[in-house]
Amino acid sequence: MENKRKVYEVLEEKISPDNIVRIGELLALGALKYMCGHKMLHGMYADLARDIANKDMEGYVLTESYDLVQEAAMFLCGYMGMTVNDVKDGEQCTVRRLCNKTLCHKIYELWKMKRYTESMDALPRNREPFTEFEREKADYSKHDELMAKLRLTKCEKETIECYAAGISFTEQAKLLSVNLSTIWRRRKSAQTKYLAIAEYYSAELSQKILRGLRESRRKGQFCGGKIPYGYYVTDKKVQVDEEKAEVVRFIFRQYAAGVYVPKIICKLNEKGLLHNGKPFLPNAIYGILRNERYLGIMRIRDEVYDNIYPQIVDADLYEKVKRKLIKNKIGSRSVKEVYLLRNKVKCGYCGNIISAECGTARNGETIRYYKCLGRKKHHNGCDKHPVRKEALEELVLDSVIEAMQDEKTMNALIKGLMQMQDANNKEKTTLKLLLKERKQTQTALDNIVKAIERGIMSDSTNRRLNELEQQAR
Predict the structure, then answer these.
(1) Which of 269, 291, 426, 443 is the most buried (most CB within 10 A)?
(2) Taking the CB of residue 374, how many other CB atoms lie within 10 A of it?
(3) Distances (CA, A) of 346 to 16, 277, 308, 349, 355
(4) pLDDT in tens, 72-126
(5) Would you tell me which CATH number, out of the four given (3.90.1750.20, 3.30.450.20, 2.102.10.10, 3.40.50.2300), belongs to the domain 231-327?
(6) For residue 245, which of 325, 308, 300, 314 has the smallest C-alpha distance?
(7) pTM score > 0.90 for this model?
């Protein structure tokens, strides 16, 4: 115990050329002992202890670990005449603490170099070294290029290298002599920079792709996507399939002539025509009728291209079909049967509108009824079953007639109608008064302007003119 105390007494002495090496050895051992969290550093600590014990032996070769002693001695040269526990003016830490921090960075550099050396030694030797070196060099060049673009600080770069080497948070904190929160903050900062660069290059790549697609489309080339019925692609050029193109013209002509879509489908099925290997469906027919590419026009965002798709349907026929499609929107097409409650009744189960519907029974009889749109169109699981048209309308009419026979209901209805009529008449009367007042104001303005033209100008004329202008506004 006394020998050990004598060994460490040198740390209480003032730094001088006689004891600077001994102090450096003790500080280097202490730094390695503090950072012995990684198994590779245990070997460095043992090597340094062996070097210190055998350095005076003839023929003994010092290991790389003894570089830490030299690093500590060079650092202590700037603090001659002080002890390691003193604080230099202008600094907040002791000499020992500052030296320990410098040694931790040096240990990290030695550990990194040793790790890379062992990794290279572990490579298989059955390959040609020159070829392997070229491949590794190319990989590192890309890595260096990315690191240069990130513009990391020295601390961030050290943290990222530790992370890439597979070192845990705790080991990184010991190697770099910082807190865990500092390690996390450095990694977060580097990650933010990387994401910013990735977003920039992603946007730049997107712009280049879009620019290339625009140039290809301007040349009339097909750039991908679903091919409409009646076309096919050869060498990036869209060609017309004449057999299917005639089917497209037939659909347009039939719809323009007033034939409903179900009847068009029946005619196509009778001819044995298919759409993508399946019978035509209403959505396929409406998709063809609304597709502007059959007119030879392709719209993408705000740009229009007329040199990609050859025209199949002439412009007059397409415009006629377009007008009919707008006219025949759902619920706007005239029907022979009148549904009194169309879009006037709501479902008591889900609150959706009750729509009109019809079907044909097995005996050929047409059955008309009302059906909930939530069940028919939205498929929301509504439990309301369809109701026969006659039954629902009769029920509603009987309820209305019965309610109108009640004296209170009739008086309330009459009172509401009278209030609506009075409000309407009041609005009309107010409008007439405002128009009359505006006309009088305009006449007075005209008279004053005429007076000014004749040379009649005074303060009262100016004042009256301003008043009339304010009223006219």
Answers:
(1) 291
(2) 21
(3) 100, 41, 48, 9, 9
(4) 888 888 888 888 888 877 777 788 888 888 888 877 777 777 665 554 444 454 4
(5) 3.90.1750.20
(6) 314
(7) no
